[in-house]
């Protein structure tokens, strides 16, 4: 078991400020996660080491035909797997899930001394050092020959310092000559740190734009904030939210403060990063998981310096150790990638950002065209518990104590309360409100939002159109080339949407480890076609014949990007398109490359999945097509409507952001669906009101609160029993409702059977933390019974988003 002591050994407690530790402790408590794991999440990888237990083959001890001696299949299996590794060794962590009866098998092998088990200690990241030369004395008074003087002159003329290796090249000199100069006291050769930070491409500098009226109103409110406040910047797509962020940050840097900008996925928003760099130059750094360990470590240390800076990062950057934080921004705050589903802590960056802003006493800006129900309720209706009303009631300092908050965000447990700042309240009776709703209802230059045409695909079929493109979308696609405009084609792809089945017997190719069908992937031209499992990443080549009945007639189903791409090539051979999805953007920098190609007009159409919805600002795009909205609408999840509305609105919002007006075409088999109608009318408010009503009626978030217990095991029976016993134990407790236990929507993933239990808290019975402790205690008690063995793993997902 991991101990807190481990943390203290590596990172001293006062290494960070008190606030930072309060935050870490809060996350640990709220998300039921050992402190060490929160610290690991917060710090760059490798800094707090994770030792690994490994098993290694002792080849010299193993007789020929060893397998025959072994009684257990597990032992044989372990032996085989170790042998398949070049160095004959394997981490327990990876070996164990693959071998049933691992422990027993391992013991047999250890007893015979055929394997050894050892612990591998991690190596922590270090600064990268490189030798450099520095000029001390240009040596004109010292006895030097001409050549040496020349070298010193070069060094002086170039600023007095240089990396050693490069300097040797430039001067065509040698290390021994330089050593001589060092002995004479003219230069110093020493090791200097090379910062490994992602610098990004060179961008042209940029000036602050003169703001629209709505933008300046929003900015004025933000500028007046002094200390903690929560701001919802609700700006329709293309309304200029980013410009507001930029201008809100600028004055902070002059006050020696730093800003933290959180975005859903950084690879998808190279444009956003560029815009920040154009404004703030090298004060901008990025922090996300695609950086290598060295880059993360160095960027992280740069933050600790306290130099005023702007950090743009994904989810985990909410823990950026900026000591002088002046503002936190969550852009696209509705996006579900701010939530971590696994591993623990299953935190939501918005919730943590909220706590952090309160602790650091700085404003938090939540920006979106389609705010989450949580943020809307808390800021707009002052609900998030009783607290919001109290703010307005003149006790601003109290800040929702005991409030329930949407996603947990509005609940404040911090004391002492931060003192009122000297500048803010004009009178002690009216402290500044802590929640602000700042709308940007129009696009820049009053450009219209794109009209949304909804196409009923049932009618298309009736009229004999069997293509995946409606007549309307077809003609719009044809016009793109004529008019030299660009378009985006959005495909919803998740889970079962693409699969291969046999036309003769109906057999569907499935993953051997998960209860899902394999998705068809088209790799690069000429490469073998692959079938892949989206859950465990299992891949196999595409079979020639049906594995069941040997029929050669295999058929692809669904509209993956792949399929759509084939259809496009067939129907519109002239149309140039770029695929933009997880297949084509796997390599580092691929997003940027593809988007640059598109922006340069090398294609008329960008075809892709979810990633198209995230903040792209492509002014030539006039057409957005949604191939089939139905996959989004029909998800068995209480958040399906909210997510569908957000996705469709966001993707439609990519159209018409430039001078030419845009248009969106949504194809669906259920045009009468309320989400579709709301998207068509651009009617966020009425959508959100009816959605809130439904959530309230059923006690779902943001009213009630949820905790999801996820159980899994290699053994189908024991996990089901364990789930049952936990559910029964919990059921006797008042104040919450137990839903389940139920099998997860996909029962088996990577050979593990998964069950879940949902705990639903009523808003009024809302748990203070001590009550949650009770839940935890009961779960812990269950674990001690033999019915819930340790082979059943259990994670507690607080405020779950994906079920
Ligand atoms: P949003 O983030 O709200 O979707 P953006 O910040 O991307 O919108 O702004 C849309 C476009 O309008 C961008 O190209 C941006 O440069 C431009 N823009 C923003 N504010 C202004 C302004 N005040 N004047 C002129 N152009 C602006
Ligand atoms: Zn078949
Ligand atoms: Zn699988």
Automatic annotation (TrEMBL):
GO terms for molecular function: 3'-5' DNA helicase activity; ATP binding; DNA binding; hydrolase activity; zinc ion binding. Residues 222-389 form the Helicase ATP-binding domain. InterPro entries: DEAD/DEAH_box_helicase_dom (IPR011545), Helicase_ATP-bd (IPR014001), Helicase_C-like (IPR001650), P-loop_NTPase (IPR027417), PriA (IPR005259), PriA_3primeBD (IPR041222), PriA_3primeBD_sf (IPR042115), PriA_C (IPR041236). Component of the replication restart primosome. It is an enzyme of class 5 (isomerase). Its EC number is 5.6.2.4. Residues 384-409 have a biased composition (Gly residues). It comes from Hassallia byssoidea VB512170. Residues 541-699 form the Helicase C-terminal domain. GO terms for biological process: DNA recombination; DNA replication initiation; DNA replication, synthesis of primer; double-strand break repair. Initiates the restart of stalled replication forks, which reloads the replicative helicase on sites other than the origin of replication. Recognizes and binds to abandoned replication forks and remodels them to uncover a helicase loading site. Promotes assembly of the primosome at these replication forks. This is Replication restart protein PriA. The gene is priA.
